[in-house]
Design brief:
The structure is a homodimer of 431-residue chains. By secondary structure, chain A is of the alpha/beta class. In chain A, 36% of the residues lie in helices and 26% in strands. In chain A, the strands form 2 sheets. In chain A, strands 7, 8, 9, 10, 11, 12, 13, 14, 15 and 16 form a 10-stranded mixed beta sheet that branches. Chain A has a 6-stranded parallel beta sheet with strand order 3-2-1-4-5-6, sandwiched between helices. Strand 11 (292-299) of chain A pairs antiparallel with strand 11 of chain B.
């Protein structure tokens, strides 16, 4: 039986996950492809480090990126993460005519266009299902299953760490710091959780999915990003009373031909399936102008789920390999390079909002705030004031109707400057 | 720009849905493929019938199946339903070297192996995403995204009509007949709803998905099928009290290397996402040994959602067309023809059960039933007796632990023969 030989760049969680699956599902894979898939060489930083999974003696380990891309390899699998070394490895692989599978969302977000162009130039495949939402087949779904749909809107819970922390805060009333520490103890959060909790990781994935959904490039730098560090148990409790759960959402939608995108903690009506995505699960909700609403739910991280996505890409490449005269369809769109997106300026985006003011318990405060809202055209849907007055002031929560980000921010700036404002106003979008 | 010309077999709901999408998403499709897709000819029963969608004057209408498969056509799209004419049309298309897209789950379930073989012989594609769960990309997901996973278990709510009826019965406490009549008025159920409410349509889809998930043939005739006509508001109410919703579920799982499959109304814990699939929506929950649990949720029927799936298949075929030397991978497995499944005899299948006995309100009845259960090794988890005694007797509901279908049925047979049994015992599986 033919053998497809892989060169692995990196052998951490996902790499050893892939190795485990290749081992335990060997028969299944052969039935699918009529070929065997083997790991031939592995690029690691430290040759002496103990491995989570024993690859046996036939596998060559090297710490030289150049050495990984050799004639012996059919497909290069980049699982090392980071930017520069990974980028060089992939470009070298392309130059050598190798197909590449990567799970590197950060690299794709930063240098995706360059990589697509290089892959096209060398007529090789660049696959990256594992880069977004782990085992959830969202890339494939956008590229092929919804190929004929105009994507009206895409909403995603795509960071398991952030979702786990918010779920713990919601179910156990924990403070953010406590939930984060727990997540770190359980290995759900890294020592430096910045990318996860500040929303950057989610933004990287959104950037990748926007290309697959719309065939345009929405520069990472242009995506407004708000993390979850500002979410308090108090906000979660208020949200609950109004019938919402707070989730870290990535969103992109077509607003009269222009794209509006962002990553924000958002209040999701508890009746929505998205509100029920718990723990370290991920979900993506799509709306196509033909297919209507679709939701995909699954594990967004972990060695086996992510390894499964990497393997799916490898098998897709193998299926296409007999086909020499076919240009790999890496982006799912023919007009290359992908044009820049026509972007709706974030300040023009419209949304319902949750505002939490922290004010001194004084007569006329509510009047001043509601007057300012009226002046800025921010229309009030619900309002509630609660709790004892004290040094920290009292929380005053207002749910608005649809309003522009610009109007909301102008109003907040005005109110934060008031002497009755004990703390800056907290603002979250409402789905 | 190149043009791909379609020959449509049938122009009903899905056909006109496809035509609408080709029209409204023309630009998007061209961006994806660098080609245009046009409907060239349409096969209809009655040439004089008014059409839901005007295709314009360039489209040829014919009532002769032989005439549809002509040199002018690149892809034949079979949307006529039924068995014999559809089967002949597809075989003629293959013989003429045309790729085929079909939404015909019944035909695939009955004659799928023959069609796969014929397509392979003529080296053409047979695509059928639209045959299962409408717009939900479940076929593609099994064929490509989970290609490297062993499917541990698959659960599906795959008939919108049955799910709509059960949802109405659940939310409005309606009787089955009333809910069915409503569904028919709304066009959710056909004049003859047999296929939908008796579970046959769901079984056809399950039969197709088993092939894609396991690469084996599980003959339709071997799938145990129980429809929803026996579900009463009383059962739904009891189920609710125990924390369950009743859904018509298709299931298949790998039990120590043998497949257990079936279509049954089942009690689903209300905390499961599957329990929240409402109205005419569909959902499929998969468990892969690598990817873990995944759920896909969306619209399982309707002109546009199903048309979207048909279009995805067409576009996939077009993407592969440049590739002359590649054998289309229609089943996702190489060992053709698909071998017969190693089937677990249904009577050996294990499940928790919901039993509703209708008994005369007499001393010792409960004792007799529980004694018989003990003798048959059916262990009781919960029991409740309710309501006024009367001509109709009183309902006695028992929830069992895991037990074999054989033991459960033997116990029921024994109890139904008792003089205190006013009506036969009702039995549903519990998820």
């Amino acid at each position: 039986m033919d053998v497809i030989r892989l060169g692995l760049g990196g052998f951490g969680t996902v790499g050893s996950g892939l190795a485990k699956i290749l081992d335990m599902n060997r028969e299944r894979i052969a039935k699918r492809l009529g070929k065997r898939i083997e790991i031939a060489s592995v690029l690691v930083r430290d040759l002496n480090k103990q491995r989570a999974f024993d690859l046996g003696s036939d596998v060559t380990f090297t710490d030289d990126p150049k050495a990984l891309v050799n004639d012996d390899i059919d497909i290069v699998v980049e699982l090392m993460g980071g930017l520069d070394t990974a980028r060089d490895l992939i470009l070298d692989a392309f130059a050598a005519g190798k197909h590449v599978v990567t799970a590197n969302k950060h690299l794709l977000a930063e240098h995706g266009l360059e990589l697509f162009e290089a892959a096209g130039k060398h007529n090789v495949g660049l696959m990256f299902e594992a880069s977004c939402a782990g085992g959830i087949p969202i890339v494939q779904t956008l590229k092929e299953s919804l190929a004929g749909d105009e994507i009206v809107k895409l909403l995603g819970i795509m960071n398991g760490t952030a979702n786990y922390i918010l779920s713990e805060m919601t179910t156990k009333g924990m403070d953010f710091e406590v939930a984060l520490a727990d997540a770190q103890d359980l290995g759900y959060a890294e020592a430096d959780p910045t990318f996860d909790i500040e929303g950057f990781d989610t933004a990287h994935k959104l950037c990748v999915l926007i290309r697959m959904a719309y065939g345009v490039d929405y520069p990472l730098a242009d995506i407004p990003i708000q993390g979850i560090t500002g979410v308090t148990p108090m906000d979660i409790e208020f949200a609950r009373e109004f019938g919402y759960r707070i989730k870290l959402l990535a969103h992109v939608m077509n607003v009269d031909g222009r794209l509006e995108a962002g990553v924000h903690p958002a209040l999701v009506p508890y009746t929505y399936l998205l509100a029920r995505v718990g723990g370290n699960y991920n979900a993506v909700r799509l709306e196509g102008n033909a297919v209507g609403p679709i939701m995909l739910h699954g594990q967004g991280a972990g060695d086996l789920p992510t390894g499964s996505a990497v393997l799916a890409d490898i098998m897709n490449l193998v299926r296409g390999m007999e086909c020499r005269d076919r240009v790999p369809d890496n982006t799912g769109f023919c007009n290359q390079p992908l044009p820049k997106a026509d972007i709706l300026p974030p300040e023009e985006s419209e949304s319902k909002y949750y505002f939490r003011f922290t004010v001194a318990d004084r007569t006329g405060v509510m009047a001043t705030i509601t007057k300012s809202m009226a002046e800025h055209g921010v229309s009030i849907a619900q309002a509630v004031q609660k709790g004892e007055a004290g040094e920290e002031g009292v929380p005053l929560v207002i749910i608005s109707h649809e309003t522009s980000a610009k109007a909301a921010d102008a109003m907040i700036e005005e109110m934060d400057a008031m002497d009755f404002s004990v703390k800056p106003c907290v603002k979250f979008r409402i789905l």
